[in-house]
Amino acid sequence: MQANFTSRFKGDRWIWFVIIILSLLGILAVYSATGTLAYSKRGGNTEFYFLRHTGFLLIGLALLYLTHHIPFQYYSRLSQILLLISIGLLFLTLFIGSEINNATRVIPIPLLGITFQPSDLAKLSLVMYISRYLSKNQEEIDSPKVFWTTLGYILAVVILIAPENLSTSLVVFVTCGLLMFIGRVNFKYLMILFISGVVTIGCLVVVLLNINTEGMESNRIPTWKKRIETYTGKDDGTGNYQQLQSKIAVATGGVFGKGPGNSTQRNYLPHPYSDFIFAIIIEEYGLVGGFIVAGCFLILVFRCLKIVVESPRAFGALVAMGLGLSMSLQAFVNMGVAVGLLPVTGLTIPLVSMGGTSLFMNSIGFGIILGISKYVQEEKQQQEEALTAGVS
Fold this sequence. Notes:
By secondary structure, this protein is mostly helical. It has one domain. It is built from 14 helices and three strands. Strands 1-2-3 form a three-stranded antiparallel β-sheet, with helices on one face. A hairpin with a 2-residue loop joins strand 1 and strand 2. Helix 4 runs parallel beside helix 14 and helix 11 crosses helix 12. It is globular, with a radius of gyration of 22 Å. The two termini are 31 Å apart.
């Protein structure tokens, strides 16, 4: 029976373990965190969001299962098509996108009554395409052409995401920068990119702190300014409500938490089921629960590093590491916001926070990583069998 199970669910067992733990924690946390939302939107039907999230999660896990059986080499060509589609959808979102939380980030899908967030597809396709480009140009990886071409693809996506989702664009940019480092792009160029990025962000912060936002209510600039003022303590004290409630949740959780379903801050936190779900997890499951979530993403990064070391194919190694870094960075930013280390963003925790598009795309990302780890394991096994046959 065990052999039958392992034949169906292939790949790194530790990553499977991470997926199972995050999925279970997500179901429990979303059920608890959506209580207030259920009373305000669904007349007290607390099972509605629980069942919807569980249904989306099951669809996501089905996509994960199917994806991890697809040979990862197919994603090399597919990434070209997906990147073009992503750029087109991001551009389209700026004009016909629906507004959620004061940001135009999603496209409504006619007849189905649901929305699609193109930035989630863009993250996935960009990582795969950059991995393809870097792996195919390893012989001239030190050339300026490779650096500037790679940077051009990254900026094309980041600039389209940034107007309505600055935090996601920064995570994408950092992820791709790390991917370029792992892909052995000339370190001199990477240092120039790093310094330029720091200077750009510094200038952006200075400009936002000094700009007059009157009459700009229709765009994201006032929101960015308010968050920076709150984080730096330059506001009037009214803008830190979200993080204050989050800190209360973290502080009252203690070591072992209040227990499942016993959160009180879910009644005060905005979006406790997505942006601040980590605070709810700590409040209900304590520091133990927080460390479990953080540990899962640390395990993911280390197992992806193992794939990089053992993979005979540069494309597979880069894709696995890029996707692992993308999801882990996103998760750690969410955690940093919850404990007050970072300014408020709209980033969620993969497989844990409530969502639709993000849940599906992250599930596919995990599936691709598992498919690559399966390939690495099979190659390693074949080498060992060939070595054994040669010795005998």
